[in-house]
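Hi V.,

Quick status before I head out on leave. The structure for the redesign project is tokenized and pasted below; the design run finished overnight.
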């Protein structure tokens, strides 16, 4: 499975509709993007479990909140009925990552191998620590391995779904 195929399929969760904003059908949005208003950079969202595609007509930051006007939503009742719907995008909408840059969503599930080929397990999730990102690797036990390219991370191969690391397996 190539990199582009890994980026299609399951939508990437960006947030949730938090409720109505005003009387003209705008919605308040709980955004998981950083910065929060980056969720408005996507022209269309996939809403709810059925992943209904809806066009984002307008949006802005309103204090600490994000508000958006969605295609076909013209009054407060319609907006309020959307409360709780998840907001996603197709991963193919993400900009291409730069050289030696990776989206966390592309790393999750990759097998982590030592230099001698032994497997430590698979990346369950990623964490930001401030200093560097950390891979949470689940195998015979859980390991937290810093994601530092050229140091602990020797090679990332998205095609073969593997990451080679320089790491003490006892740590």
């Amino acid at each position: 499975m190539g990199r582009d195929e890994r980026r299609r399929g399951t939508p990437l969760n960006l947030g949730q509709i938090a409720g109505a904003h005003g009387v003209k059908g705008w919605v308040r949005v709980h955004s998981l993007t950083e910065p929060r208003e980056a969720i408005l950079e996507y022209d269309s969202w996939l809403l709810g479990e059925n992943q209904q595609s809806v066009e984002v007509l307008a949006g802005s930051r309103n204090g600490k909140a994000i508000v958006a006007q969605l295609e076909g939503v013209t009054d407060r009742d319609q907006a309020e009925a959307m409360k709780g719907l998840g907001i996603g995008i197709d991963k193919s909408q993400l900009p291409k990552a730069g050289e030696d840059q990776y989206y966390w969503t592309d790393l999750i599930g990759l097998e982590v191998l030592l230099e001698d080929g032994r497997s430590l397990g698979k990346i369950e999730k990623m964490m930001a620590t401030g200093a560097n990102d950390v891979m949470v690797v689940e195998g015979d036990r859980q390991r937290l391995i810093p994601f530092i390219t050229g140091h602990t991370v020797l090679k990332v191969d998205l095609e073969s779904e593997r990451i080679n690391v320089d790491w003490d397996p006892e740590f």
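Above is the designed sequence. The helical segments are 3-6, 76-81, 104-107.

G. will cover questions while I'm gone.

Best,
W.
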